[in-house]
Amino acid sequence: MIKIVRSFAIMNKRTDLVYKRLLKLNQEFRKLQDEAIQGVLNEQKRSRINSLEPQIHIYEKMFDCFTNIQTCEELIGSGVNQTEQSELLEEIKDSTNNLEIFSEEAVTLLVEKDEYDDINQVTVEFRPGVGGSEGSLFAEDLLNMIQNYCHIRGWDNRVLSIQKDQAIGKGCKLGVLSVQGDGVYQRLKCESGVHKVIRVPETESKGRLHSSTASIVVLPKVDERFQMNDKDIKIEFMKASGPGGQHVNKTESACRVTHVPTGIQVQNMEDRSQERNKQRALQILQDKLFAIHIAEKQEQLVSRRKSQVQGSDRSDKIRTYNFPQERITDHRTGKTLFGIEKMLQGELLDDFIDLYLQKIHSTKLEDLMDDLQNEV
């Protein structure tokens, strides 16, 4: 064992730190396996064993490299001819190179992943911000852009509802889009926030440029582990309003649900059925509370880190679309691309999302290495 430790000298510092973290995880893994043999393993610990297996697999490959290096060093030290020594030195070199490769694989596994990135179904909400009716028109552009992007990615999507801007008879005061497919939440959450547009509005008679905004909010499908407390929910029924004939005004089919601790309210009147409106309102409320739950967990992660990446909070202005200059700029990464039409067709979104995810990963990697250094 002493000689294996001595072989750390052939590694760079990063590989050294990674191996020591894997060594600790291996010790935890073996302890959990012993508990499993004794029959004292609960569901949480069983899940932990499953999550550790990929890291332990890499650890074992790195350990084999160290063992091979140790054996070669011992053979060289025992006295071998020049040909054998050359072969052993070449084997040491190969094992050292493999250590670096396995180390990089381990880093990918050790970088902290967002807990809910594997969710494959989301609801996306689009709302105008500042700019009046122009904001509504831009919100509609964003909804169409995300739909186009879904088609490119091969994701199933459908518009659940869209409220037009009554002042102009079009646009989007509130649009709700359902999306399902692999990697949906991990990628679309990067679009959550405030989007800014600079252009001449349709309603502008003098051709002046205006700045308007619209927001995108991405709500992941509620994880089965997340439950609302019925005691915190207040349910009210009322007469619906708007188009729909006499039935709308004569029956109390509309439903408003309130989460008392937070004051969050959701009202639904899409259906003639009181029960279906209630169930839909409860589902929307649960989605909103789950999104808040995720945001709080992300804030906790950030507070533990020494560096912070600008997140996807709805108050963050993430991107500007400059129509006259055909320029789109992402303020989180500084990336600029040209081609408004391609952007609205969803063709440029992957470029922006990939770079932002890369930035998040790089920051997490820096935090990981800082944590490993502090463990020494």
Tell me briefly what this model is.
With 376 residues, the chain is of the alpha+beta class. Helix content is 51%, strand content 20%.
How would you describe this structure in keywords?
three-stranded antiparallel beta sheet; 376 residues; alpha+beta; 11 strands; single chain; 51% helix; disordered N terminus; eight-stranded mixed beta sheet; flat
Descriptive overview:
The chain has 376 residues and is of the alpha+beta class. The protein has ten helices and eleven strands. The strands form two sheets. The chain has an eight-stranded mixed β-sheet with strand order 2-3-1-5-4-9-10-11, sandwiched between helices. A three-stranded antiparallel β-sheet has the order 6-7-8, covered by helices on one side.
User: Could you give the order of strands across the largest sheet?
Assistant: 2-3-1-5-4-9-10-11
Dominant shape:
flat
What is the CA-CA span between the terminal residues?
Answer: 19 Å
Q: Biggest sheet: strands, sense, closure?
A: 8 strands, mixed
DSSP strand tally: 11
Strand content: 15-25%
Overall pLDDT metric: 84
Task: Give the number of helices.
Answer: 10
Task: State the secondary-structure class.
Answer: alpha+beta
Helical fraction: 40-55%
Low-confidence stretches: 1-10, 244-248, 304-315
Q: How would the blueprint of this fold be written?
A:
Blueprint (H helix, E strand, L loop, with lengths): L1 H5 L6 H26 L4 H36 L3 H29 L10 E8 L4 H21 L2 E10 L4 E11 L3 H5 L4 E7 L10 E11 L12 E6 L7 H5 L3 E6 L4 E5 L5 H31 L12 E6 L4 E4 L5 E3 L1 H5 L4 H27 L1
Parallel strand pairs: 4-9
Antiparallel strand pairs: 1-3, 1-5, 2-3, 4-5, 6-7, 7-8, 9-10, 10-11
Helix pairs in contact: 2-3, 2-4, 2-10, 3-4
